[in-house]
Design brief:
The complex is a heterodimer. Chain A contains ten helices and 21 strands. In chain A, strands 11, 12, 13, 14, 15, 16, 17, 18, 19, 20 and 21 form an eleven-stranded mixed β-sheet that branches. Chain A has two domains: about 180 residues, Glucose Oxidase, domain 1 (3-Layer(bba) Sandwich); about 220 residues, Rossmann fold, CATH 3.40.50. By secondary structure, chain A is α/β, with parallel strands linked by helices. By secondary structure, chain B is α/β, with parallel strands linked by helices. Helix content of chain B is about 35%, strand content about 20%. Chain B is built from 38 helices and 39 strands. Chain B has a seven-stranded antiparallel β-sheet with strand order 14-13-10-11-12-15-16, sandwiched between helices. A seven-stranded mixed β-sheet of chain B has the order 17-18-21-20-19-22-23, with helices on both faces. In chain B, strands 32-31-28-29-30-33-34 form a seven-stranded antiparallel β-sheet, sandwiched between helices. In chain B, helix 15 packs across helix 16 and helix 33 runs parallel beside helix 37.
């Protein structure tokens, strides 16, 4: 698609926005979602106004928008929610998955006017505006989703208010907006973990999460974009978790004498994470038990010598079926990944980095066969591509944290 | 785990007649189950007494038993068929209860039949409320505080502890029958008293009231590998206190955070495991305290339910189909998702649209009934709509109800009216949604309405948004793009916009089309567009992108019948489904438009394309336009879905749409009294004397000239809505005064009422040349009882060959005179050997499925092909028999009896008494059963048993009849006494019986005594009376009769209200006493008919 188009209501470059379909009480401020293939969706401004750029991706969860927007893995992405009503339960202070909203932009169909939930403390649009997150509403999110599904995730921009005009006050043409969209760097090759990680280490104590008695073990968790719930799930199982910045070195880790090392989820292209891959190889060489989630799975894959690649439109939702090959059982998982590990499913192979021994794909997607988990047979390391901490999402995979605890116990006993 | 290879034959139990709480949804799930089993190469045996279902079509099972669903009958079927397994989870509570009984009686063990898809222990854990409380606790959930009681004394004790209000729920009843809210001791006596009777285990649960809490339901599936998925979450707009079947419900949940939702999901998964649901579906209901978030588990159903059908339609995830596959051994990950093809069923559907279901009620049929909505389900049907947001879905759903006033209107209310609205909405009734919307329109604060109704503020704001949109439409200077788009986006119809702008809806439509504002059609795909969908299951939305693919050949569009209602139910869906099946087989691309989630017609793979849309002119025209622009339209069938599509015929023709089959002009000819009289006249036929009236003066003049009693009714109605027998001028005046409320555009018809006439019903096919008589049915009750409520028998048992010949000739003359192309239904009355024509309906009738099952000929399929130009002659030797027809059945043909099933026990007056069960010209039955056997007596007995109204073979019979029946009652009562029944009677009837040598115990007339002591009432209440014969007359005896019938209805004692029915019942009682029943499948009956000469290809 090279010709700029506006959905069905084409009004031609330069004059978008005459036919907007806003609610009678919504601010009538025009907003445009511009995809790099030239497709333009016309809606109304939502949250903050201005211009924002990012990779357009769709997320299919019907609940948990607050967790979604605060998931650091969504950094530099414009998230399109397929669920048509967003903001219904407002915003509370318990559900954020990190210290701020990370999405680069937010695209929804129908935004709530009155939030309603016993825990709600303020409306979502207010929260977006306060955190300066530019959004768009009243667009055909299903049309956008179908486009992204067919064409793949692509660079995009949301433009509203002054961003629709140039310095002289004239309406910017679609060609100009498109140029701006296409000027942003691609997600392929993006190094983002360092941008989202916590600058300082902190500790999550099991005693604060209902654990009675002594901690079971100490874990060094490298924050590449970690979600709040991840260390909490570990703490609930008696683990004392040191959350460490993405720049942490092996020496830093050694000083903590952890019984296990954990690599979190995070945004960006795993091919750029050579620092973390190097770090993980040192961990694996030390035979310290290791567990990785999402980005952590990709880094384990790369540390073992496998390649990673970008999926056409990724897996983003909380209904993703995954087969655990060790039990033959299906778990419904929470996923958010645009990249995946390229490893053979259904056979045990020796890792390309042969010093790490044999590896199995432990989990795979039932929808498209993508690798969803790795298990090392000869060293104490495993990882999954999805989110056992859920938040948002089903809790089917929480057993993986138990596996991590067991792995550390076995290793201690051995 | 792959399919089990040890299952060679499976018995499936259906759900029996359509009753409130158990309706067409079980035909949908049952039909899916049968299809899956057949596809898997398993021999399928079905028992279901409901002839109006698709599942009882002989082609869906190898042996189809249209027999009563009673343990005794099923035992005979098991003994005969020796199935390997029994699948009881797809036929509602009826099937589950039958399975439990078969297990308890040792039948399953004796014949080595394995229960699949369920296990008895799990059923008991799920349905026994006390045991279930333990399950909930072990699953990490909480139940409302409650106690089980087995007597009123216990109930009163518990009441002290829990305090009022309290929920009362009898155990093991369906659709919440007998449950209710007790606000005080009086209520408790009433509800718990009846509940103890309803519960087969004399067990009632009393529970802390969680009134006003948010209510949710999760639809779950589990496979043999312990994989569990949530298919759908349904949120009730109406807070706890209203049965979920009577609530406006929404999917997905709109007001839950992920944390709250996951809590419900976790508890549900734990419960399904703890209960041990073997494989298949179940649903779990929750309440959430809106203030604290406390979650309470309400109940679970360990089977496919009404909500499963809704969830299947709402998500595209075919629960019943998959449950059946799981029952025969597959696991979820081995079953492909039909819609995406490439992904498995082991996932959780995600929706990018909003689904709203609204119930449809029939309180107008039961004027004495209390319309308060409680935990006992009272709705008779439902409509579902899909939109891209809640406002669009809600407004589409409301207009799908097809009731006057079902769409929101926006006339302002004055202060007094507002006070009334606020008072009114404090009680949940069918009006509440409108009261809330009107109050918001009048400016009442959202918080106040939330305080009064408990409806979540988010929903209230959505209603406010609709009101604001209406205001904007009204205030706009012009109907411009902006205004129209906004209104359409929030679901406004052209009709509503027209009202707001004082414009004709057609003008609105013209403006809208001129501005290019048209709906697009989206796809229900289970996955929010993450994967391509291969199933064209569409819904409209005013959004940007259209998804309809181009089609190759012009489509044949079938209009469905909308929400089930009394008078227009599953029978019409049956005809629509048959039409689409026949047409697809003949190579046509078919398109179904319907909005009823319970039905087979809205199964996404029944037609080539499905549009889940309201059946209003606007919505239908838009679908037609969409089909037109993507490949063309061959035409539209309006004659299959009952009155709903028929009403659109002329308007569609006016819009240039080709109407297939009988033309709109011909339809009008049959429906218009004057024109129809001309048809009769030229055919040499007579109708009862009649006239039309538009005022009382008119009506009086007509009645005076033809003589009382007269039958009065509005034109263009179904189910006898507003039909009454009027005996004098006062009655006529009252009727006309109310009649304008029925249909203002059409006059009232006044007919001479023929007393003691035999009513005859005919279904026939006509192609312009040849007639095929589908069947002639003789009613058991005399004319005056609505044909839908009357039992009837095919072939006729008392009409002679010359009368049958006259009926045939009359049918041919009328079909030709009207110009029918397809089905026609004609009602005749025979009085003093004169054949009168009562009315003709040029469409598929309610009896088409019954006739088709009884004669083994698929009439609706034939009608569809005739509509496409195929002749009766061409159909002979195929769908139709080579020779003969349904009016010329061989003497050896089986006798089929259709009996109506009535919902009186569901409806209580404001005082808490059952409404009167007297039959009349207005239809009140919700469903029907068929009894089929070699002779009438046994067939009638089977029909009574199947209708849950088994006739006694001994005991006390109470007889009290009107004066005109005193002569006719003597012989049958004598026979009853000879058979060993002891007779109880009152005054006049007792005198007559004694003088005729019949001994009887005499009791006082109820009207004559201030106390019930000494009357028949205590005898009925103590269960001493096994049978009641009570024919009504005017005056005192009528009220006497009400007391007796009310007591009998609440206790389930059979009541016979006509002498004709008494005669039939007596034959049946004798038959039951003298010989045991045999069972035969429809396939066996068809084979017998085949060898006797009524030959249908492939029927053997």
């Amino acid at each position: 698609m090279s010709e700029p188009r506006i959905g069905r209501d084409q009004t031609g470059p330069g004059q978008p926005g005459e036919n907007g379909a806003q609610g009678p009480t919504a601010e009538t401020s025009l907003a445009l979602l511009v995809l790099e293939d030239g497709t333009v969706y016309e809606g109304s401004a939502y949250g903050a106004v201005g211009a924002t750029l990012g990779e357009a991706v769709f997320s299919t969860g019907m609940t948990g928008y607050q967790e979604t927007i605060t998931d650091p893995s969504y950094a530099r992405q414009i998230v399109v929610q397929t669920a048509p009503h967003i903001g219904n339960t407002g915003v509370n202070d318990e559900d954020p998955e990190s210290r701020r909203i990370w999405v680069a932009g937010y695209a929804v169909r129908d935004a709530a006017r009155v939030p309603s939930n016993w825990r709600s403390v303020r409306p979502l649009d207010q929260e977006l505006a306060e955190q300066d997150i530019i959004g768009i509403k009243d667009i055909d999110t299903r049309a956008v989703t179908r486009r992204l599904r067919n064409q793949g995730s692509m660079r995009a921009g949301i433009f509203s208010a002054e961003a629709l005009h140039d310095s002289a006050g004239n309406r910017r043409t679609l060609t100009e907006l498109l140029e701006e969209v296409r000027s942003q760097p691609d997600m392929l090759g993006a190094r983002l973990a360092e941008e989202v990680t916590s600058a300082h280490p902190y500790v999550i104590d099991p005693a604060d999460h209902g654990w009675e008695g002594e901690p079971v073990a100490t874990v060094a968790a490298i924050d590449l974009g970690i979600k709040t719930m991840t260390p909490v799930r570990m703490a609930e199982r008696g683990l004392r978790v040191h959350v460490l910045p993405a720049t942490t070195t092996f020496t830093d880790i050694e000083q903590l004498k952890p019984q296990g090392v954990f690599l979190s989820n995070g945004p960006g292209d795993p091919a750029t994470a050579s620092a973390q891959v190097g770090l993980l190889r040192e961990v694996l060489d030390s035979r310290t038990p290791f567990f990785g989630i999402c980005f952590g799975n990709q880094i384990l894959g790369r540390a073992l010598g496998f390649d990673t690649y970008k999926l056409p439109f990724g897996h983003r939702g909380i209904n993703q079926p995954v087969m655990d090959h060790s039990t033959g059982k299906v778990e419904i998982t929470s996923q958010n990944h645009g990249f995946a590990v390229d490893a053979p499913v259904g056979e045990t192979v020796t890792a390309p980095e042969s010093r790490f021994g044999r590896v199995q794909v432990s989990h795979s997607s039932l929808n498209d066969g993508v690798v969803e988990g790795l298990r090392c047979m000869d060293i104490p390391a495993f990882s999954v591509q999805y989110h056992p901490e859920a938040a948002a999402g089903p809790h089917d995979s929480a057993y993986l944290f138990d596996r991590f605890v067991d792995l550390m116990k076995e290793h201690q006993n051995a | 785990m792959p399919k089990r290879t040890d299952l060679k034959s499976v018995l499936v139990i259906g759900s029996g007649p359509i009753v409130i709480g158990q309706a067409a949804e079980f035909d949908y799930s049952g039909t899916q189950a049968l299809r899956v089993l057949k596809e898997e190469g398993i021999r399928v045996i079905l028992v279901n007494s409901n002839p109006a279902t698709i599942m009882t079509d002989p082609e869906f099972a190898d042996a189809t038993y249209v027999e009563p669903i009673s343990p005794e009958v099923i035992t005979k079927i098991i003994a005969k068929e020796r199935p390997d397994a029994l699948l009881p989870t797809l036929g509602g509570q009826t099937a589950l209860n039958a399975a439990i009984a078969l297990d308890q009686q040792g039948v399953l063990e004796k014949y080595n039949v394995e229960l699949i898809g369920a296990n008895i222990a799990a059923i008991e854990l799920g349905e026994d409320r006390q045991k279930f409380k333990g399950v909930v606790e072990r699953s990490g959930g909480e139940s409302a505080s409650s106690r089980i009681v087995h007597s009123m004394d216990e109930a009163l004790e518990v009441a002290e502890e829990l305090g009022y209000p309290m929920v009362v729920r009898p155990s093991f009843t369906m659709g919440g029958l007998g449950s209710g809210m007790a606000y005080n001791e009086r209520d408790l006596y009433r509800i718990a008293g009846a509940g103890l009777q309803y519960s087969p285990t004399t067990e009632v649960l009393l529970e802390e009231a969680i009134l006003g809490w948010k209510e949710y339901e999760l639809e779950m599936m589990r496979d043999a590998n312990d994989n569990v998925v949530v298919v759908c979450t349904i949120e009730n707009l109406d807070p706890v206190g209203v049965h979920t079947g009577d609530s406006i419900t929404v999917a997905p949940s709109m007001t839950l955070t992920d944390r709250e939702y996951q809590k419900l999901r976790n508890i549900s998964i734990n419960i399904i495991r703890e209960v041990g649901v073997a494989t298949g579906g179940c649903n779990i209901q929750f309440a959430i305290d809106p203030v604290t978030g406390r979650v309470v588990v309400i109940e679970m159903n360990p089977r496919v339910s009404r909500s499963s059908a809704l969830a299947s339609k709402a998500t595209g995830f075919a629960i019943a189909k998959i449950a059946t596959k799981l029952a025969v051994g597959y696991t979820l990950d081995e079953i492909p998702n039909d819609i995406t093809k490439k992904t498995p069923a082991s996932f959780e559907p995600t929706l990018d649209y909003v689904v709203v279901k609204v119930p449809r009620f029939a309180f107008e049929k039961f004027p004495a009934a209390d319309p308060t909505l409680t935990t006992t389900m009272k709705s008779v049907g439902e409509a579902m709509a899909i939109g891209r947001n809640f406002t669009e879905a809600l407004q589409k759903a409301l207009r799908s109800l097809e009731q006057r006033g079902s769409e929101f209107s926006f006339a302002p209310s004055d202060d007094a009216a507002v006070t009334q609205l606020l008072d009114g909405m404090a009680t949940a009734t069918t009006d509440r949604i409108y009261q809330v919307q009107q109050a918001l329109l009048a400016g009442v604060e959202l918080e106040e309405i939330h305080r009064i109704t408990g409806i979540d503020p988010w929903y209230l704001d959505q209603l406010a948004l609709i009101n604001e949109t209406a205001r904007a439409v009204k205030a706009a200077e012009n109907l411009d793009v902006q205004v129209l788009k906004t209104a359409k986006r929030h679901g406004f119809s052209d009709e509503q916009i027209g009202q707001l702008r004082a414009m004709d809806p057609a003008v609105v439509r013209g403006v809208r089309h001129a501005l290019g504002i048209r709906p697009v059609y989206k796809t229900v795909d289970t996955c929010a567009a993450e994967f391509p969908a291969y199933t064209p299951y569409h819904y409209s939305s005013y959004d940007q992108e259209d998804e309809i693919a181009e089609h190759e050949s012009p489509s044949v569009i079938i209009l469905g019948s909308g929400p089930n209602r009394i008078g227009q139910g599953i029978e019409f869906d049956y005809s629509c489904v048959h039409a689409t099946m026949a047409l697809r087989e003949a190579g046509y691309e078919t398109v179904m438009i319907n909005c009823n989630p319970e039905t087979v017609s809205t199964d996404y793979d029944v037609s080539t394309r499905l549009y889940f849309e309201p059946l209003t002119l606007e919505d239908v025209l838009e679908v037609i336009a969409a089909e037109e622009r993507t490949g063309g339209v061959a035409g539209v069938f309006v004659q299959l879905g009952g009155q709903t599509p028929l009403k659109l015929a002329q308007k569609l023709a006016d819009a240039g749409v080709p109407v297939l089959g009988t033309s709109p002009a011909a339809i009008d000819l049959a429906e218009h009294r004057g024109a129809f009289d001309q048809v009769l006249k030229s055919a040499g036929l007579i109708a009862p004397k009649n006239g039309t009236a538009v005022s009382f003066e008119d009506a009086k003049a007509v009645a005076d000239s033809i003589g009382y009693p007269v039958l009065v009714r509005p034109s263009y109605v179904l189910g006898g809505r507003g039909m009454e027998i009027v005996y004098d001028e006062t009655g006529l005046e009252r009727y006309i005064a109310n009649a304008t409320e029925v249909t203002p555009e059409h006059p009232v018809l006044v007919d001479r009422f023929l007393e003691d006439a035999i009513e005859v019903d005919v279904d026939a096919l006509y192609d312009g040349q040849d007639l095929y008589m589908g069947g002639i049915m003789e009613h058991i009750e005399e004319a005056g009882i609505h044909s839908g409520d009357s039992a009837c028998v095919l072939p006729p048992i008392t009409l002679g060959p010359d009368m049958l010949q006259r009926v045939r000739e009359a049918t041919a003359a009328i079909a030709a005179g009207v110009g029918v192309r397809g089905l026609i239904n004609i009602q005749f009355a025979v009085a003093s050997d004169v054949l009168y024509v009562i009315e003709a309906n040029p469409r598929a009738s309610r009896t088409v499925p019954f006739v088709s099952k009884a004669t083994g000929v698929q009439l609706a399929k034939a009608a569809a092909l005739i509509g496409m130009g195929v002749s009766v002659r061409d159909l002979r030797g195929g769908i139709l028999p080579e020779h003969g027809d349904g009016s010329l059945l061989p003497p050896s043909a089986p006798v089929a009896v259709k009996e109506a099933v009535l919902p009186f026990a569901r409806f209580r007056t404001v005082e808490g008494r059952v409404v009167d069960s007297l039959l009349g010209p207005e239809m009140r039955s919700t469903g029907e059963v068929m009894g089929i056997d070699t002779h009438f007596d046994t067939a009638f007995a089977k029909s009574q048993l199947a209708a849950n109204n088994p006739l006694p073979t001994s005991g006390k019979a109470f007889v009290s009849v009107a004066n005109r029946d005193k002569r006719g009652v003597i012989m049958p009562v004598k026979r009853l006494a000879d058979l060993g029944f002891s007779i109880v009677s009152t005054g006049g009837t007792a005198d007559v019986l004694r003088r005729n040598g019949i001994t009887c115990e005499v009791v006082d007339k109820i009207a004559a005594t201030p106390e019930s002591e000494g009357t028949v009432l205590p005898l009925v209440e103590s269960g001493e009376i096994a049978l009641i014969i009570n024919t009504p007359s005017g005056g005192d005896a009528r009220s006497d009769g009400y007391e007796i019938r009310a007591a009998a209805t609440s206790l389930g004692v059979p009541v016979i209200t006509t002498i004709a029915e008494f005669g039939a019942a007596l034959q049946a009682i004798e038959a039951q006493r003298t010989h045991s029943w045999s069972v035969a499948s429809l396939q066996e009956h068809a084979a017998a008919l085949h060898s006797a000469g009524l030959a249908v290809a492939g029927a053997s």
